[in-house]
Design goal:
- This protein is an alpha/beta fold.
- It contains 8 helices and 12 strands.
- It has 2 domains: 4-125, 3-Layer(aba) Sandwich (Rossmann fold), CATH 3.40.50; 131-224, Arc Repressor Mutant, subunit A, CATH 1.10.10.10.
- The protein has helices spanning 13-24, 36-46, 62-70, 87-95, 108-125, 156-167, 175-183, 188-204; strands at residues 4-9, 28-33, 50-54, 78-82, 100-103, 131-133, 136-139, 144-147, 150-153, 172-174, 212-216, 220-224.
- A 5-stranded parallel sheet has the order 2-1-3-4-5, sandwiched between helices. A 4-stranded antiparallel sheet has the order 6-7-8-9, with no helix packed on it.
């Protein structure tokens, strides 16, 4: 079995080395970059399976790097490492195409679980065909919504959430389940984040008046179409 290739961009050399060595002892191949420009070069040369990007880095920060990569690669999983805890900072990361984030300090076991979870999720869905959601066509792989020849680009998190809503179409998508699956836990902060993404999906689906995403208080959400 091929080793998972991880691009780790972390400007704190000692932390980067600890993470690199810890992952390598668990059979990962790790390319460590000390700044965003170096990480960009490694990404192009090594074609990693997943990116773990520190938000605050010299020369090019993690958000800028992710934005550049998402212009040509919509599917590679991206995890942000951040010392920031502001809702706006984390939401910005998701809006730029991030799939997950970890707040420093974090445990290696938690990072490994997040990496494997994201890669398993991508693998399971790479063969998903276009799905009909009302009058929309939803392509999970390309992260697009098509309505009357008008295409909208979704973020990774929006696409993941819509996929699970569609899987449970006209049924309740359990709030705790989806928070743990996509956000890693069901704390208040993540619940608020998910509410924001639900609102964004409602806006993107508004052209079909027969589609609703309703809040089933105390249980979760239901996609009706």
């Amino acid at each position: 079995m091929n080793k998972i290739k991880v691009l780790l961009a972390e400007d704190e050399a000692s932390l980067g080395m600890i993470v690199k060595e810890s992952l390598e002892t668990r059979n990962f191949t790790v390319f460590h970059a000390l700044n965003g420009e170096e990480a960009s070069k490694i990404y192009l040369e090594e074609k990693p399976d997943i990116l773990v990007l520190d938000v605050m880095m010299p020369l090019k920060d993690g958000f800028t790097l992710a934005k550049e990569i998402r212009k040509t690669d919509k599917t590679i999983p991206i995890i942000f490492l951040t010392a920031k805890s502001q809702t706006s900072d984390v939401l910005e990361g998701f809006n730029l195409g991030g799939n997950d984030y970890l707040k420093k300090p974090f445990s290696m076991e938690e990072l490994i679980v997040r990496i494997k979870s994201l890669l398993n999720r991508i693998t399971l869905k790479t063969n998903v065909e276009e799905l009909a959601i009302g009058k929309y066509l939803f392509n999970y792989t390309k992260q697009t919504l098509l309505f009357a020849n008008e295409k909208q680009q979704l973020t990774s998190r929006e696409a993941q959430l819509l996929y699970h809503l569609q899987e449970k179409k006209n049924q309740i998508l359990d709030r705790t389940f989806i928070l743990n699956k996509l956000w890693g836990n069901d704390d208040f902060f993540n619940a608020r984040s998910m509410d924001v993404f639900i609102s964004k999906l409602r806006k993107k689906l508004k052209s079909d008046s027969d589609i609703q995403i309703i809040n089933v208080r105390g249980f979760g959400y239901k996609l009706i179409c």
